[in-house]
Design brief:
2 domains, mainly alpha, Serine Threonine Protein Phosphatase 5, Tetratricopeptide repeat, disordered N terminus, about 220 residues, about 75% helix
Amino acid sequence: MHRLNVQQMAKNNSTNNLKQQFKDNKQLRMITYGIGVLVVALVGYLVYKQFIFGPENDKSKGAYVKGLNLASQDSTDLAIAELESVVKKYDGTVGGENAQLILGRQYMTKGNFKKALSTLEGVKVSDTYAAVGVIGLQGDCYSEMGKYQDAMDKYIEAAETNENEKTTPEYLFKAALVAEHLKNFEKATELYERIRDNYSQFSQQKAIEKFIARSKNTKLK
């Protein structure tokens, strides 16, 4: 997996180098998979809250667990086959929607971002944290397909859904990186400053002034 070096971006104020960093779409896998751990945590939270405590859709609740386990073991093809069956059988139930979320993520692992996007767009979950993850993954799909304006819009939507100290600054940061790629340096600066002013615990907070300086300086050129 190729990852965009965030610290190197913080040090590099060259517009040409920034453009080169985004030239190879494989490098955007940092944007696509940078919060993959968060998605896994969200799914785990769904299992805990909805499988154990949810009173409705009892028959569907355990249906996606096998697919989830296969996905966690990197058995992507087997997971997809299992989850597609669950989605078809339990569409509209708690278990069916959870299966569809995980299925969309597995399509992304296979590189089928168009199918992943259409799958994720159909996911309806009541849990707000899971809803944030679904929106963010849609942004990742758009990013991988080169639809960066749509990606930025989705990242901002994810950031503003259930605002909190964890997911909000992470999605704002991703949106700002994409804004720079779009040469919308004013928007990038706005997003970086929003992180600086409101989310002191964000992991990139120490470097945020460098990102702000880069986008501001580029804007002035």
